[in-house]
Amino acid sequence: MISTVKKIIFSMALVLFMGSVAIAADSIVIKGSTTVLPIAQTALETYTKANKGVQISLSGGGSGEGIKALLDKSTDIANSSREIKKEEIALAESKGIKPMAHVVAYDALIPVVHPKNNVKGLSTDQLSQIYQGKITNWKEVGGDDLKIIVISRDSSSGTFESWDHFVMKKNKVSPKAQMLASSGAIYTAVSKNKYAIGYLGMGYVKKGVKALAVDGIVASPETALSKQYPYSRELYMYTNGEPTGETAKFIAFLKGAEGQKIVAKEGFVPISAPAKAKSGKK
């Protein structure tokens, strides 16, 4: 009798163990960029609806946090709005990790203001001086006599890194700037303050804020793809080497026709764009 009970307990434990293995095999963890977040969120909802039993965990925190999680082996996919840095690659190699980039969308980093702000565009030099705290009033750039409230992403953000690359060029952001933890937070802050300026990926530029032209160029899918718009960039998902299992299937789904429709729906630029967009012609 005791032997039979032991066999039953062992069998139950084995079933539970095998069940947990199956769950692990059908689960994906995604961390990182808040710019990529809306694409990933809609994609996972669509994917899991069509693939019952697959579990996907998604969180933001910024591109730097996503890549850090990849290096710590605590995520399957690291969302990033910037390329992985040389020092991150070196650290990855020291841990036996091989970061592999998957471009899932194109984007344009756009300076935004409150809709009541009458400024329509700025130059890169003007933007740099505003963010350094050297230009402090909108009247200095053709606007009303109002103090400029500078709003930026936090330093763990790939969007912050992109802004530094395109605009700041290693100049420091003013200590008076408000450093916010997500693109959504920047959208909300700018939409509620007629003095404010911030910057967002294309998918976050909606009715509550106004996009500014940069150096006379308006951001659009066409100008982003052609790189005519000066702050154009790729959006990435990073994996540890060639992805396998459900991770590979999910990335393939996102890069496929249905996934790229999601990219466009969320306001970003599909990687499979029409030829006329690639040429930059409208």
Could you please describe the fold and organization of this structure?
- With about 280 residues, this protein is of the alpha/beta class.
- It has two domains: about 1-105 and about 235-280, Periplasmic binding protein-like II (D-Maltodextrin-Binding Protein, domain 2); about 105-225, D-Maltodextrin-Binding Protein, domain 2, CATH 3.40.190.10.
- Helix content is about 40%, strand content about 20%.
- Strands 1, 2, 3, 4, 6, 7, 8, 9 and 11 form a nine-stranded mixed β-sheet that branches. A two-stranded parallel sheet has the order 5-10.
- Helix 6 links the parallel strand 6 and strand 7 (about 180).
- The longest helix is centred in the N-terminal third of the chain and has 24 residues, at about 1-25.
- The chain is globular and about 60 Å long.
- The N and C termini lie far apart (about 80 Å).
Give a quick summary of the entry:
This protein is an alpha/beta fold and 282 residues long. It has helices at residues 2-25, 37-50, 63-71, 86-94, 124-132, 158-168, 183-191, 221-226, 245-255, 257-265, 275-279; strands at 27-32, 55-61, 77-80, 99-113, 121-122, 149-153, 178-180, 196-201, 210-211, 213-214, 232-240.
